[in-house]
Amino acid sequence: MPKHSFVLNGKKVDVDIEDDVRLLWVLRDVLKVRGPKFGCGIGECYACTSLINGKSFNPCSVSVKHIKASDEITTIEGLADTKHKGKDLHPVQEAWIKHSVPQCGFCQPGQIMSATALINDAKKNKRKITDADIDNIRNVCRCNTYPRIRDAIKDAAKNM
Amino acid sequence: MTPKSESHNEPALVTDASGSPFQGVAHAYHESDGSPTLVDPSPRSVPRRTFVGFVVAGSSLIVAGRYVLDSDTAAAAAPNPGVGGPAGGRVERALSRKVPVAEGATPILSNDLPGDHYDFMDFMRDATRPVTPLLTLELKSNGRVYFEVPRAEVGQSIESGCAQIIADQLEMSYDKVDIVQSKARIDLLDAHLTGGSSSTFSLWEPLRELSELIRMRVIGAAATQWGVSADRLRTKEGVVYGPGGRKASYGDLSVIAASPQNEFVGALLNAAIGPPKRGVIGKSVPRKDLREIVTGKKIFAMDLDIPNALPCMLRRPPQINGVAESINNKDKILKMPGVTDVAIIPAALRGSVVAVRAKTFGQCVDAVRALDVTWGVGTTGKITSDEMLKQVDASLIPMEPGHPGAEVFEEKYTFQFRVSGPLETNSAVADVRADSAELWGSSKIPGTVLAQVSELLNMSPEKIVCNVVYGGGSFGTTLHGDRFVEAAAASKAFGKPVRLMWHRTDQVRFGREKPGAVSHVQATKVGNSITSFTQWHASEACDFTHSAGDLITAQMMKKDPSRYYGNTSVTDWFYQIVTAVPYNFGPTKTALTEAYEYDFIPTGPVRNVYSPDVACARELLVEDLAKAFGMDGYQFRRAFAKNAEVVAVLDAVAKRGQWGRKLPKGVHQAIAVHGEYKAQTACLMEIDNRPKIVKERKLEGRVGPRITKAIFAASMGVLMNPDVVKGLVMGGMIDGIAHAFSEACDWQDGLPIQGGWDDYGWTRHWDAPLEFEAILIEHSSTVPSGVGELGVGAGFAAAAIAAQNALGKKVTGLPVFYRDPDLIQPFIDKKEGLPQSPTKALPA
User: Fold this and answer.
1) Interface pTM (ipTM) of the complex?
2) Is-contact A113 A56, C-beta < 8 A?
């Protein structure tokens, strides 16, 4: 079986699995990394949102063969360790706690990763987060925590 | 008489009961040496219903309790100040009948409806009382308190709420209370049910009594140790304090307060009567699982690691309830990468499906898509939404004509089918062996799961273990055990453990739905009065065969010859005890009729059940009435409000939302009310329908008008955790926006055409209001209201009225943008069964 290597949450991993298995199942079923969730499997709900080299993407919609050995994949489990040495949690995670965002919590790993990517992108391009930016986040929340996510993103952006 | 402490009632420590409101309450501890003793109460003054405590044998302190009824008729006639108010019904009725008089309105008092006296929350409270002896609360030697709650945590914060109740009554830290979801237990009968927003209300008394019992035991233990009278001791933050600087932790005292055998404490405790202590209750403490959620550590069913339980997915038929007659390429499927097994298994509802087990879920999808199956159409056939709603309409009770001389306002409102669709799809792990089975998954009625799986496997329920896991939402879905039935069937067919997970597409097409409905509403007007109000509500049959959770009623509801009548009798009763009308409209009547059998298509009591549609239809007609009176929606509702709580919530949203403020052209306001779960609610919304906004949104494939602002007010009982309450009403209210604007399953050829999140009109960030506020008013300080579903009714009604005002034409069909060509997305092809995942969706 083909071998695939990539960097996951800061550590190099190797898996033996068929080329066309989507990265989400490599993470969940093979590597037992279960933060990214299955909400649709077809890139509509964004519950699996993770980062590839700092940019947000849906691992349910990428075959593992398209992941290079040098690609750095960050899932929710690895977020706290990124760019935030010395502190317990990432500012977005802290904002989520401060604003009591989650209800069932199933979508929240994806929401947090999408929010992180959005804020990082805005900082990089030296612009402020607008309501339109947040409107354009496609992550589904069936519990409808959307207004609190909005407040948490604006708050987190101040601390990043 | 020892004065009562101001902050809480301590009936057990009162040394002289005369003159006390708890007259006749016996002491738990003897005055002189703190030893436990039963003091015979005066027979004339024993309260009607009391709670007696036990210590259960163990090395640490474990308590249980039991409700006893007093047969003394004199006492029985005395008013019961306990839960539910004087009549056992809605608390707010006792509080006020006076409402302001408005010019131009002469309200005629309306009659009460059954739910005004006894509602589903009361039913769940009463179902929980008899099994209270089976619930134990444990104080461990490390000072932590442990409780297995017979409820499911699906996002509504029941786990945290139980911890708050216990910590408050016990006077200890919230962080040291550990709550675990109880496994299925046959002995809990119909008390292991999560639904009707009743969990906090039904556990309120038992948990407070059990907590107080522990507190008294540790006090008694300390009193004995120190040789002082128990009434000289105080508790705070998990420590007992005595004279002379003495103190001992609950944990240390637990060992002393424990008992090597079951011991009848004999205390007549009434700690649950009266307001809570408010050391923890009333504070917005964080959810217990908050940190786990934000770090990705919270465990749902598919996150469990059960040995050898491999992924399993299903190929479902081309029509609902279809039958898999044969698999025509079984050998080919078994040779596909990762695949271990394939077989036909019974579907949870009717008909059958094909199950595939493989190393990864993606490989299951590949195999499911490659299956060549011969399908039979099954008993439901190629049904359509239009046909079903036609039959529903035909089942309506005929509306009486208005009485002579009255002006009649009448309208029929049609509501489409809507899938419950939590983000976690139907997921369960099953390990079925020759003479035992173990299951893991989220269930709100695990007792019924035992019944269903027992029947499926022909195995005694005692041999089956159903472990309840956190749910990724439920909204009614986990009342039904579909996931467990299919997982168990697959595991049995394969002789191996499986992790069954439904695909999103199947969750939309085959998942439990809120049934479509037609609501016929009529009001008659004479002069300045509304002289009658009638609402006949017809629904496609709502499947309540999950029953209340005990094996007996679950099976009875489904057996011939009462197979279908059993379900209807339950839904008729349920509708009557949850439906109320918040206005003085004179003689008022309402009833439910249903069309089709309960399993014709998969339905269930989805969030707020019938009430969102009932409220929406009523509130839309009220808009017509307001117009006829020359009043706006706020003035009219206020003038005809049934009680002061309705007025209070209307006033609250009108004030905060600046009702009547000058609005730009294209921006409109709307207001609506609804009462349920022993609470009264109002919602004010503002909608932006300006051409520029609408055009931009439509270009993105979104609903044109947008709810920009929403203010929600709730008049309710004890506010356990304001933060949680506000979050839940916000969530329910936005459900209402989805119902009003875009959410529908359009059944064509025996299945909904929708199959995902992009073609099914669920709300996303771009639909949620930009400004939201919840105003909470506490009208009762002794019992909590229901919260989980509270936001939906008034939220739906307000959003529908907002749309009506914005569009400038009457809304009689919901969702407003049903079959709107601008919103039509490419639908997921039904012929494929399951859609394939994209392969290279990488960022630029």
Assistant:
1) 0.98
2) yes
